[in-house]
């Protein structure tokens, strides 16, 4: 769940920074921009390319429609539907967003933390 | 066999009706807390379908002054009896 | 509404409260989503006022609580597709399948008892 607790600020540019909660999710999800995603990705050691951006877009669509960030299983399903079965696989998402893809990708997409994950 | 537990009075909502719908022919029903009002002779007809499988908790009957006023078809159990019923059941479901 | 037998499931969540008045509905849906996220086969049974959770045209609450409509539409993304409603409650509220957001199967009391019996774990909310 999104929290309102500000834990630290993420520097996005010389003139912009955004508040993050203790787990690194945006406090104000409206503040998300592609630059915010890049700055968050830097912290994860991820360089965003086309394959990342299309997943981020799937996640943002998911949230707009269902008002929740998906756990891994529905994320795989949503990616598969939007981008095709080749990409709708855990292994693809693990490669793009190592560790816990549902959480990492939700964070970069500016969504709240998925609430039905480990 | 499953044990269904109801803690609401028959007059308060649909808990009794829902529990009865969900019971198979072996299942038992235990009335606790306000649920024990269902053990009164005027109420017990609502449980006709499960005769012999209806229980009420003694402590809750006593606390409400209903001990002795309950219908004889209701089996009264104390807390140990409650534990035994739970142990005899594969699963327990609460209706509140 | 189909007639074939209901499959044996891992988890049946029974939703017996409508939206907004209490948090029971949301908690029940959360339990179902957690079960599904962990790979369990999950079925939902809407009983009593719980059937109102399925109504078309719900919105967020007065204090900005989220509506349950988007969560219900999300169920299929979690592969929660076994949805049942209590026939008696549908009648009591004067509802038909066409009033509901999702495709459900309408059950009488005997079918409800059977469904409850076939699931390894049953949670009531």
Automatic annotation (TrEMBL), chain A:
Keywords: Cytoplasm, Transferase. InterPro entries: DsrC-like_C (IPR042072), DsrC-like_dom_sf (IPR025526), DsrC-like_N (IPR043163), DsrC/TusE (IPR007453). The active site is at 117 (cysteine persulfide intermediate). It comes from the Bacteria. One of its GO terms (biological process) is tRNA wobble position uridine thiolation. It is found in: Cytoplasm. One of its GO terms (cellular component) is cytoplasm. GO terms for molecular function: sulfur carrier activity; transferase activity. Its EC number is 2.8.1.-. It is an enzyme of class 2 (transferase). It holds the Pfam family DsrC. Belongs to the dsrC/tusE family. Part of a sulfur-relay system. This is Sulfurtransferase. It comes from Halomonas eurihalina.
From TrEMBL, chain B:
It holds the Pfam family DsrH. It comes from the Bacteria. One of its GO terms (biological process) is tRNA wobble position uridine thiolation. GO terms for molecular function: transferase activity. SUPFAM superfamilies: DsrEFH-like (SSF75169). One of its GO terms (cellular component) is sulfurtransferase complex. This is Sulfurtransferase complex subunit TusB.
From TrEMBL, chain C:
It comes from the Bacteria. NCBIfam families: PRK00211.1, sulf_tusC_dsrF. Gene3D superfamilies: DsrEFH-like (3.40.1260.10). Pfam families: DsrE. Belongs to the DsrF/TusC family. This is Sulfurtransferase complex subunit TusC. Transmembrane segments: none annotated. InterPro entries: DsrEFH-like, Sulphur_relay_DsrE/F-like, Sulphur_relay_TusC/DsrF. PANTHER family: PROTEIN TUSC. Keywords: Transferase. One of its GO terms (molecular function) is transferase activity.
């Amino acid at each position: 769940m999104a929290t309102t607790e500000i834990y630290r600020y993420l520097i996005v540019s010389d003139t912009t920074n955004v508040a993050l909660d203790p787990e690194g999710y945006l406090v104000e999800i409206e503040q998300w921009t592609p630059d915010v995603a890049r700055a968050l990705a830097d912290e994860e050691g991820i360089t965003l390319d086309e394959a990342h951006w299309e997943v981020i877009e799937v996640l943002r669509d998911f949230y707009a429609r269902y008002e929740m960030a998906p756990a891994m299983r529905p994320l795989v399903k949503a990616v598969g539907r939007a981008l095709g079965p080749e990409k709708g696989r855990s292994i693809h998402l693990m490669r793009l967003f190592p560790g816990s893809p549902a959480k990492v990708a939700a964070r970069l997409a500016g969504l709240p933390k998925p609430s039905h994950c480990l | 066999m499953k044990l269904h537990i109801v803690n609401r009075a028959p007059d308060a909502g649909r808990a009794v009706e829902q529990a009865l719908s969900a019971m198979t022919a072996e299942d038992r029903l235990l009335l606790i807390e306000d649920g024990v009002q269902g053990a009164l002779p005027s109420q017990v007809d609502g449980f006709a379908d499960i005769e012999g499988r209806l229980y009420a908790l003694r402590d809750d009957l006593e606390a409400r002054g209903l001990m002795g006023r309950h219908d004889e078809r209701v089996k009264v159990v104390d807390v140990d009896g409650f534990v035994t019923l739970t142990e005899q059941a594969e699963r327990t479901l609460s209706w509140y | 509404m189909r007639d074939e037998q209901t499959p044996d499931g891992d988890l049946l969540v029974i939703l017996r409260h409508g939206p907004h008045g209490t948090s029971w509905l949301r908690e029940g849906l959360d339990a179902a989503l957690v079960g599904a996220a962990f790979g369990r086969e999950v079925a939902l049974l809407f009983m009593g006022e719980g059937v109102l959770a399925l109504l078309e045209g719900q919105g967020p609450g007065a204090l900005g609580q989220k509506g349950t409509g988007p969560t219900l539409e999300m169920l299929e993304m979690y592969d929660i597709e076994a949805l049942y409603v209590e026939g008696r409650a549908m009648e009591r509220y004067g509802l038909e399948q066409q009033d509901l957001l999702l495709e459900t199967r309408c059950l009488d009391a005997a079918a409800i008892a059977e469904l409850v019996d076939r699931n390894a774990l049953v949670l009531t909310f």
